[in-house]
Amino acid sequence: MEGEVVSAAIDETHDPARGSWVPTANGHPEFPVQNLPLGVFSPRGGQPRGGVAIGDRILDLPAALAAGLFSGEAERAAKAAAGATLNPLMALGRNPRVALRRRLSTLLAADGAERAKVEKLAPTLLHETASCAVHLPAAVGSYTDFFAGIHHAYNAGVRAGRQPPLTPNYKYVPVAYHSRASSVVPSGTPVRRPNGQRKLPDQDAPDFGPCRKLDFELELGIWIGPGNALGSSIPIARAAEHVVGMCMLNDWSARDVQRWEMQPLGPFLAKNFSTTVSPWLVTVEALAPFRRPQRARPADDPKPLDYLWDDTDQREGAFDVRIEALIETEAMRRKGLPPHRLASSNLDHLYWTVAQLVTHHTCGGCNLQPGDLFGSGTISAPDQSGWGSFAELSDDGNATIELPSGESRTFLEDGDEIVLRARAVRDGFVSIGFGDCRGRIA
Ligand code: CA
Q1: What is the per-residue pLDDT for 201?
Q2: What is the mean pLDDT of residues 25-45?
């Protein structure tokens, strides 16, 4: 860990005038040269290794290291990012990561001094993404799912018949539960409809069988970088140093199982059968231009307790990133229809900043570790166009959602695919995306 307090830095790697000699990077909706997300991939017939998404290609980090393209701190980071997981890179902290980003940006820039040399190496450095398998970016040691989307929390309270809908702790505590790391899967992995105990309101006793209310949740995934020692806590002013980047996260949910099992200890099997993440680690450095002040709380909301309050975090701790959830059914695929948008929202609807989640998680001495994953909670918008789950969209099955194929849905059916996407847009900067977070119900 370096000594200085991290503040969002915008540098030459964000320069909107910078293009790449990789032709598909220029104008790419997700992976222009300003993004440079890290991930783990296998070229056809090859072993998993670290790479960088650039346009419709992946830059092979072991190949770039073998070609001697890195030195110093950038080389240290490239070596840590070259293996079958990014955990060693996540452990390093900000300085080597920034050095790697700046070096990659130079190597891939259209006007880079070494362009001729690097371009000549392209056949060994670059793989077509379409011909590669993309894996989880990290071995996930621990996965915690928060509940920081206040509109989702409010809608859940309304459905539960609570008045007021938010529980009394909601505006004081960043509410969460410890979820399951072993079933976190990368985009594209089929999701099996879980079996479980279900009890509908009109049943006297539960029965056992396939989930009848299978749902998605539109969430931000947060990748933890350097950890903290057991028994220590991370002060809010240092929390940003412990976050390495973001992904999109779908917290698949079995609502009928959940309703029956979760009292009084919270979700268990309803949430642990699969969690899908987009495979690219979009670094906090790439997201620097898209930071914004945390939304001001309504005047009658309590101010967060002191340990959760930091002026810098309030000034730049939120992110202006558009997010959406789309559905594609088997019939839509047969008819050649494009995925249908179910919800459109923004990361800035989170009631708590990412730094507040980190600090709260550790305030009692819990140790975070590199490669730990947080889910933000479902990030619904205030109105129906941005409700990020079927539980909200269909009011727990009481309303139907009509699809362009002529079908309707209350919850997910077999063959349905959910795609989550995120796109950061700001005037004067090149937009970047997170890459698909996709899963089909098998
Ligand atoms: Ca969730």
Answers
A1: 81
A2: 98
Contacts of 294 (CB under 8 A, 6+ apart): 313, 314, 315, 317, 318, 353
Whether residue 430 has pLDDT greater than 80 = yes
DSSP track, 251-265: --EEHHHHHHH-TTT
CA distance 322 to 248: 11
How far away, in angstroms, is 199 Cα from ligand 1 center? 21
Q: Tell me whether residue 1 is in a domain.
A: no
Model confidence pLDDT, tens digit, residues 114-139: 999 999 999 999 999 999 999 999 99
Number of folded domains in the chain?
A: 2
359 and 298 in a common domain: yes
75 shares a domain with 34: yes
420 CA distance to ligand 1 centroid (A)?
14
Residue 362 lies in a domain: yes
Shared domain check, 178 and 49: no
Centre of ligand 1 from the C-alpha of residue 213, in Å: 15
Q: Which residue has the tokens 């104008």?
A: 27
- The model's confidence at residue 213, banded by pLDDT at 50, 70 and 90, is very high
Quick one: average pLDDT of 69-93?
Answer: 98
Do 127 and 149 lie in one domain? The reply is no
Instruction: Report how far ligand 1's centroid is from the alpha carbon of 266 (Å).
Output: 11
What residues sit around ligand 1, an ion, with C-beta below 5 angstroms?
145, 217, 251
| Residue 240 belongs to a domain | yes
The domain boundary residue, chosen from 116, 135, 154: 135
Whether residue 2 is contained in a domain is answered as no
pLDDT of residue 6: 42
Alpha-carbon torsion 78, 84, 86, 87, what sign? Answer: negative
Q: Which domain holds residue 80?
A: 7-135
Are the C-beta atoms of residues 432 and 34 closer than 8 Å to each other? yes
Q: Are residue 267 and residue 347 in the same domain, yes or no? A: yes
| Catalytic residue list contains 152 | yes
Is the model's pLDDT at 365 over the cut of 50?
yes
Of these residues, 14, 151, 152, 349, which one is catalytic? 152
Q: Tell how far the Cα of 24 is from the centroid of ligand 1, in angstroms.
A: 35
Q: How far is the CA of 331 from the centre of ligand 1 (A)?
A: 28
Same domain for 169 and 84, yes or no, is no
- Please name the residue that has the structure tokens 């409010």: 154
Ligand 1 mean position, distance from CA 287 (Å): 23
Q: Let me know whether 69 and 207 are in one domain.
A: no
Q: Are residues 125 and 149 in the same domain?
A: no
Distance 208 CA to ligand 1 centre (A): 23
- Find the angle CA(152)-CA(217)-CA(141) to the nearest 5 degrees: 115
